[in-house]
Amino acid sequence: MRSGYRRLLRVLREPTSMAALTPAEWTSVVAVARHAGLLARLGELARRDGVFDRIPESPAHHLEAARAIAEKHRRDIRWEVVHVARSLAPLPGPAVLLKGASYVASGVSAHLGRLFGDIDIIVPRAQLDEAEHLLMLGGWFCDKQSAYDIRYYRQWTHQLPPMRHPVRESVIDLHHALRPPIAPGKVDTSDLFREARPTELGLYIPSPMDMIIHSATHLFCAMDFRNGLRDLSDIDLLLREFGTSDGWWRDLVDRSRRFGLVSPLAMAMLHARRMLGTPVPPAVLAGALEAAGRGEHRLLDRLISAALPPASVATSMAEAVARGLLFARGYLLDMPPPVLAAHLTHKLVSLVPRQRGSERPEPV
Q1: Measured between alpha carbons, how far is 267 from 270 in angstroms, rounded to an integer?
Q2: 202 within a domain of the structure (yes/no)
């Protein structure tokens, strides 16, 4: 698995190198790529770069099967976005797709071979209640959760509890901000809505820079890195597609500073360049790291590098510790210490078994 992971990084950096892999090497690459959610992407990159016909028959079958699944995901997302757009049509402001759904709606390279779990949408905070009401009229409802979990989402996070459609089983994460309102620092999303543009599917998509900044923020402020390599590959493809001049790169960093999100962007550029060979200009990367006030954060960088491999690869105790520390870091980034202490106390108390007959419904 270790060798398969190293080979996977190599072919993500240079897709044409897939033509030189032996059948034995393909065995480990296919296994790791499947766990990372990147198997279909390998097939798409091989087709894009003209080397698919030089891949041995057995791994080619795996890539084609994964491609068929990814294509179904893409069709399903497009169809679901049309339904969402119809439900949110009365909303006065733009409903903007984020992450995977925005890749599909815009047709950017990051949609290649992409797998999806849910649809992320952001609306202006003032229109959140109306958007929720319209989605409920369209058939989406909050998944079953405790009253505490509902309060947790509504008071302390940047999104509502996930909403699921009972027939089509689609899940919507409805956001009103890019970061939790109680997190340190204020993120102003007015520019995101101002520069969002409509799509043929009826909803809006962010500008390419905002798409990248949000993807970097989602990954590098996260608690869970299980899809970390897939998300880093998304960022790599977006940066390669749009980073065509030094001026664009500098504008990207400047825009992230206006959002107050230069730190996750700097980390995204650093790790994309280091692991996937993303052509980030060295001077731009140095400037972003300086603007983020990071300097040499070697411990954090090592933790992230250990957490990005899929679970089938990251099996050592050190890697498990890295994931645990990053999980704790994600909480600390989202909540001030007093709120975090109260939240963790509730969670610990909830683990204590109650005596039979003592259960009472928790008031909403």
Answers
A1: 5
A2: yes
DSSP class per residue in 126-142: GGHHHHHHHHHHTT-EE
Average pLDDT over residues 324-335: 89
Residue 364 lies in a domain: no
Model confidence band, residue 89 (pLDDT cutoffs 50, 70, 90): very high
SS3 of the chain: helix, strand, coil, percent, to 5: 60, 5, 30
Total count of domains within the chain: 1
Residue 260 has pLDDT above 80, yes or no: yes
As given in the structure block, the two tokens for residue 20 are 């030189």
Residue 43 token pair = 């097939």
Q: Which residues contact 340 (CB under 8 A, 6 or more apart)?
A: 331, 332, 334
DSSP annotation of 288: H
Give the number of other Cβ atoms within 10 Å of residue 130's Cβ: 16
Residues constituting the chain: 364
Q: Is residue 362 part of a domain?
A: no
Torsional sign, CA 63, 65, 68, 72? negative
Q: What average pLDDT score do residues 269-278 get?
A: 96
Query: Could you identify the residue written with the tokens 């790791």?
Result: 32
For the stretch 140-189, pLDDT in tens is 998 767 888 888 888 889 999 999 999 999 999 999 999 999 888 888 89
Q: Where are the alpha helices (DSSP H) in 293-357?
A: 298-307, 317-334, 337-350
Kindly give, in sequence order, each residue whose CB lies less than 8 Å from that of residue 352, ignoring residues fewer than 6 positions away.
Answer: none
* CA 312 to centroid of chain Cα atoms: 20
SS3 330: helix
Yes or no: say if 121 and 158 are a contact pair by the CB < 8 Å rule. Answer: no
Taking only the tens place, the pLDDT of each residue in 187-208 is 889 999 999 999 999 999 999 9
**Domain interval for residue 166:** 2-350
Element (H, E) at 120: strand 119-122
Q: Is residue 43 part of a domain?
A: yes
